[in-house]
Structure formats: C-alpha cells, structure tokens
Write a structure and sequence with these properties.
The complex is a heterodimer of chains A (287) and B (94). Chain A has 287 residues and is α/β, with parallel strands linked by helices. Chain A contains ten helices and nine strands. In chain A, strand 6, helix 7 and strand 7 form a beta-alpha-beta unit. The chains are: A alpha/beta (287), B alpha+beta (94). At the A-B interface, helix 1, strand 1, helix 2, helix 7 and helix 9 of A face strand 1, helix 1, strand 3 and helix 2 of B. The complex binds thiamine diphosphate, iron/sulfur cluster and magnesium ion (MG). Iron/sulfur cluster binds next to loops of chain A.
Amino acid sequence: MSQKQILKEKIVEESPRDDLIRRERFPHIWCPGCGLGTVLKCYVEAIAASNIPIDKHVIVSGIGCTGRIAGYVRLDSYHVTHGRPIAFAEGMKIVRPDLEVTVISGDGDLVTIGGNHFIHAVRRNVDINVFLVNNFIYGMTGNQMGSTTPLGAKSSTSPYGCPEFPFNLPLLAAALGAPFVARWTTLHVRQLADAMKRALQVKGFAFIEIISPCPVGFGSYNDLREGRDFIKLFLENCIVDHSADLNKVGITLRPGEPIILGNFVDREVPTYHELELEVFRKAGWLK
Amino acid sequence: MSLKLVREPINKHLQKVPLGIIHVIPERCKECGFCIDLCPKDVLTVGEERNIKGYRWPKIADGKATECIACKMCEWICPEFAIFVVEVDRREHV
Ligand SMILES: Cc1ncc(C[n+]2csc(CCOP(=O)(O)OP(=O)(O)O)c2C)c(N)n1
Ligand code: SF4
Ligand SMILES: [Mg+2]
C-alpha cells in the first residue's frame, strides 16, 4: 500500500463509542448544527471515564428535543412526563441509593414547566446529577419563549423581543445550596465532559447548565441560523472564570456582554439520604 | 475562527507530534461544519460525495494528509458520532 492510500480518511460504519449509544437509532432526530449530539457525546465519555459500572448508571429525561437524549444512550433510560424528570429521579434515587441517577433535559422542561421540582430537589440536596441543556427556548414545540429566554431575545411568542428577565441558573442553584454548580457550552467539550465526570462523583445535587446551539429554533429568530454561528458566538464571547461572582453570570446575549463559564461551586453538603438515615435512626427504625 | 496555536515551545524539535488517521461514517453526517471549522490544523474540508440524506461528509483537504495531530477536536464536537481519529506513530507513516 502506498502512503497516500493509508493517509486518506477511512470510511467506516461504526465508531468506537457505539458501545454506549443506541447506534441502531442513528442518525438521531436532532437538526444539523444542534448541540444535543455533542452533549450526548460528552455524557457517554463521562460515563466511560467514571469507574462506576455501566449497569449502575440510569438516565432520566423529560419532554422536548433534549428529552430525546435518554433514548439514545445504551443504559436503563427513562423518558417521563414533561417537567417531571427531577421528581422521577428523586424517587428512584431514594428507593435505590446504589444507582447513579442522571437527569438530562431541556431548560423549558426543568426550570420553566418543572421549576418547582428543580427548586425543591436542590434544596433537599438529593444525590442526583442534573445536566440542563439551555437553548434559551422551548425548542420542540415551536420556539416559544420561556424562563431562560434572554431579555429582548426573539422567539415565536416574543417577535418584538422577550419582555422578561431570565433565570440566572448558577446563582439559583448555588443559593439553594447545591454542592456542585457548573456552566459550559457544547464548544467546551473536554471541560464539559470533565465537569460531568466530577458531577458523577459529587455527593448530592450536581448541576451543570449546558449552553447549546439551536440554529433551527432560537437561532432562526435571532440571526444565528447555523450551528457554526453559535460556535462563533461562543468562541468570541465566552470567558472562563471558576470564581466568578454568581450575581453577575446572568446571560444577556447582548454584543460585548460575556457568557461566563466555569466550575463555580464544589463543596460538601450533607445529602438528603444521609439526613434521612439520621431521622430513621432517631426514630428507632435503624440500628 | 479556528483555534490556532499561538505559542511555540523552545524544545519543539525534540517533541514527537502524533499523527491521526481520520475515520468517517458518511451516513451519519449532517454537514454542520463543526469539524471543519474547529480543526486547529485546517485538515478537513467539505467532501464532494453526498450521503442518502444529501449531506456532504468531510474529507481531508488537499495536501493535509499528514497534518492531523490527533487532538480529536472533530471527534469530540461531532454531534452525530460520525467522525473519529485513531492515533498512530507518525514515524511509521510519514
Ligand atoms: C404537560 C405538557 N405540556 C406541554 C407539552 C408540550 N411540549 C412538548 S416539548 C415542549 C418544550 C420543551 O422545551 P425544552 O425543555 O426547553 O426542550 P427543547 O425542545 O428546547 O430541547 C413542550 C412545551 C407537553 N408535551 N406536555
Ligand atoms: S429545534 Fe433546536 S434543539 Fe431541537 S433538534 Fe433542532 S436545533 Fe436541536
Ligand atoms: Mg429548550
């Protein structure tokens, strides 16, 4: 074989990571340029690096484009009602503390329709991982604004600009006492996978906000029509600051105002499971 | 907009640069362009052939066959699990 032949791209039919994805369902449903496939990639890499047996991992998703993630991972996966994956995951973790329970779902699902479950799960410090994909919109149902749509951003239900302030999610999670809080984009693949890996180790509620391109939904209303437009936005505007003042990390998407990323919080907080066992002991139900 | 290397180490001549062999799964590609845009060595370009859905999967650009340094950025960023890189010993191929 000549050198030239060896050094061409090789055409193949499967990837080395097909062991952790449901390859028979590929290509997946997500639009060209959508960041969700990259979130999936980072998650399966984090699982592979986690040293936790594969059969101990479970994934729970709600409804939406992001909600389809559970169906593409070769794990025990649960696709539950809209807004309720955290409630479902809490129940599962409380009954089966041996499982490593991860929720991956959308911004609309987890903090708009499901916002109350989010608040109370963080407050209780249930030992689950929540990876929230923020594409600033209710994607799957037609690009309506939600609680993460930046002030002034356009959507199908805010054609003249969103008149509401969005959630600052890292601040919210940290204020409720979360032991681990991070934010990355789908451009920051290795940092995101490392944060996921750390989240799998952390005891208690581990929260990662993942900023992800949605060129067909949010992007089409906001001059970001291709996935690469979002990547350019991330390259030009993201700043990594692990010790950022969380009061100042709200996302505006206005020109010149940065998107601040980092592993903001990593601390020890007693988990719901530990505190519950203490109560059981006091009540005499456990020795 | 690619991630260009700005620093040059003083012991550069002593360093071994890995070589990557690029593998593509054409039927998964949706032509988002992330691999092409984010390769720090500009190894990839849009291919000529189309898959069953009409997307042109990436190919190695002219004259770039030995440029891949196996950083795997394309593999990590690809939302479709459609490209991956196998690192080999550069001395055996170049
Ligand atoms: C109880 C209920 N209300 C509304 C819907 C309609 N619905 C389906 S997906 C979706 C939006 C999901 O948005 P998000 O969680 O941000 O996911 P994305 O599609 O943006 O990834 C809505 C409102 C539903 N399926 N069930
Ligand atoms: S609508 Fe947006 S989030 Fe949904 S698959 Fe398309 S790009 Fe992804
Ligand atoms: Mg959304």
